[in-house]
Amino acid sequence: MIKPNTDYKIDLLQSNSVWEKKTKLRRVLWQCLVKPIYHLIPTKRLYHLRIWMLRAMGATIGRDCLILPRVNILMPWNLVLGDVVVLSHDVCILNFAKVTVKSMSVISQGVHLCTGTHDYEHPHFPLTYEPIVIESENWVASGAFIAPGVTLGRGCVVGAYSVVIKDMPAWMVCAGNPCKPIKRRDIKPTAEPTHDTV
Fold this sequence. Notes:
This protein is of the alpha/beta class. The protein has one domain (21-182): Hexapeptide repeat proteins (UDP N-Acetylglucosamine Acyltransferase, domain 1, 3 Solenoid), CATH 2.160.10.10. The protein is built from 2 helices and 19 strands. Strands 2-5-8-13-16-18-19 form a 7-stranded mixed sheet. A 5-stranded parallel sheet has the order 1-4-7-12-15, covered by helices on one side. It has a 5-stranded parallel sheet with strand order 3-6-9-14-17, with no helix packed on it. The radius of gyration is 20 Å and the shape is globular.
């Protein structure tokens, strides 16, 4: 048995996350049985099968969503997707708490949605977690990190490799480390369809 040096202020031997029995069983089922098969689905064309497996594990997923290969989800039952949501390659969702991505949103390659952190002032360094909410019509660009407890307002754009540690406002382009609003996101009107006259 390792005994901590009395000079240490932090004692990781006392760090312990308490999970309900139901959550433990779900995690074993997902990690050991379902997730290995989920990750064997190699192509974009079979995204319906990935969605079916996530729903079977408790995820709430709307219609016409696209989940590409190598999307890593810690707890499917803590995932809520609206309609027409895209999760691109290598997205990592550490959802100890609920992650909600509302309709018409794109989460690009390598984005990290992390609901968990640690209380670094506590001597036992316990795990803490808060939900993430991404409102409708968002684009989170490649490699961005979204921290626990963050809400992205409707229509927000988060630039590539940004680190978002606080809420971002609606219809703004935001970027940086730490992420900050930069400019308004104005949606241009599309050209009216033309009709041939007879």
